[in-house]
Amino acid sequence: MDLLQKLEKRITVLQQYNAYRGELHHLELNGKVSNRMMFNEKEYIIWCLNDYLGLMDHPESIKAATEVTELYGPSYPHSVRLTIGHTAAHDKLEASLKSLMGKEDTMLVNLGYQGFFSIIDALTDRHDTIIYDQKCHACLIDGVRIHNGRKFAFKHNNVNHLETQIQRALKTHDPKQGIILVLVDGLYSMHGELAPLDEIAQLKEKYNFTFLVDDSHGFGVFGKNGKGSPEHFGVEDDVDIFLSTFTKSFGNLGGFVAAKKEVIDYLRFAVRSQIFSRTLPLPMVASVQKNLEIFLAEPERRERLWKNTNRFKDGLNNLGIDIGSSVSPIVPVKINGTHQEGLDVYFALRELGIFSYIVAYPVVEKGSCLIRMVCTYNHTEADIDQTLEAFKTLKSKYPNPLSIPTKISV
Ligand SMILES: Cc1ncc(COP(=O)(O)O)c(C=O)c1O
After folding, report:
1. How far apart are CA 368 and CA 364, in angstroms?
2. What is the number of alpha carbons within 13 Å of residue 407 lying toward its C-beta?
3. In angstroms, what is the span from residue 33 Cα to ligand 1's centroid?
4. Do 287 and 304 share a domain, yes or no?
5. Model confidence pLDDT, tens digit, residues 272-322
6. Is 31 part of a structural domain of the chain?
7. Does some domain include residue 407?
8. Residues 215 and 131 in one domain
9. N or C: which terminus of the chain has fewer CB atoms within 10 Å of its end residue's CB?
């Protein structure tokens, strides 16, 4: 078999998607994208940016990035962090994150995805056991995939099953040789539900494990001070390894890990994706630093995000549209039907000037399909009301896909 024969099956599947190139994927952007954007000469309200706090193109953030770009170019420093890829600005951002998170230390990573899976790789070897929520983000799952020790998945957000898996793991696990590492997302990115971090933290009193939370979507959104899902549940100290990207609330690139000093000291020399790949460029560092300052100075950004979220979700609930069990600005409009029916609703929504994206397998479970809508600080009441009006129109045109399935009792 040669490569093309091997790929033939997969290419056939991709061809279905290619029919939508430029319309559903690989859209050609050519202008500002915020709460609205122009696409093919028509204006749309945008519901697919994870720019929760509206900081992605804040003028102060652009200024901070531009100043250093003009001095040193767009990708300075031109090396890996450990050699000549480090500046005082990298240190300053780590210090700011450390003080915000109340952890002993933090380390930046150049991209969330490659940083996080590589952190899991650095923390474990064949003597260690990983137990992970089956719906963790791909970056954690890929960390599990390259792990050559024991691994167990637990059913999504099911703490009883997590406990069963810990007990199963303990039968073969040698605590003198290795650790048990439990992985979850703080806020799940497709259905918008939180992990039960408080209940998982309680399990730590019974079992000795290391607890890692990827809170890329919760950071900046949840908690009294916006420190994320662990703060929301009051379990910050129980989370041993806290991860977040800057690509959501902090509107930029890169991410960070917060943990005990000894852990971070070790990671600085052990995370292969950071040792063998270039540092986070200075313009990104400068812009995230500025965004962090704005986030701290303007808590009203979070207030408005939540006000928008509640207005939008209340409106969809009143229309009888199924948005699952989301407790966050991530609003999954569930399609009660086939992928094709989902596409019909999706393109009809587009016709009405509403822009988001449709999610199907493998991002969500096989056979299910949803239109993922994300509320942000930048949305106006007019944006929300116009979008609700569009859903009202669609609800009468597509009553079945936009209905809430009735549970069959047995
Ligand atoms: C939960 C979660 N973790 C990690 C990442 C990866 O972040 P990045 O975009 O910085 O690679 C994402 C991005 O989609 C995410 O949703």
Report:
1. 7
2. 3
3. 20
4. no
5. 999 999 999 999 999 999 999 999 999 999 999 999 999 999 999 999 999
6. yes
7. no
8. yes
9. C
